[in-house]
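To whoever is on call:

I kicked off a structure prediction for a single chain this morning and the downstream step that reads the tokens threw a length-mismatch warning. I double-checked the sequence; it's 142 residues and nothing unusual in it as far as I can see. Pasting both halves so you can look.
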Amino acid sequence: MAIAAVLYVLMLINAISPPSGGGEARIGDAYAAFFLTVGLWIVLTVMLFVGGIMGAMPRWAAWLAVLLVPLSGVAAFAAIDMCSRNMKGAIIFPAALPLIIAFYAYWARSPQLHDTMPAKRVSMFAWGAVFFLSVIALVSAA
């Protein structure tokens, strides 16, 4: 969780910082955004995998995660690209998507949360939100 938090903060700082310099500096910023986003999504995938193995995650939710986690990573990177083009409202996508996925991974790993938050509701809310935000980000990037 700590590694994800560091990558998350660095990714957001990279996304909201104004482009510095000319073409080569912008390419460097794009590479940094790409590697930070990929690194964060790898950590989120590991967190979900551990949550699914060590905790309790519905099987259908695991299959949705296999499809939606890569889609959300692409959507977050597209939103970061929109931020670099001065569409500052696009920061909501890379800010919200990792938080939802990390919450779900924590929920899946934590048995005491299963008593207060039922699996079907949490899974439907989390993966529905990830799908909705990802599609909105990709459509608005196009």
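Update from on-call: the warning came from a stale cache, not from the record. Cleared it. Sanity check on the structure: Helices lie at 2-16, 23-54, 59-84, 92-109, 111-116, 119-141.
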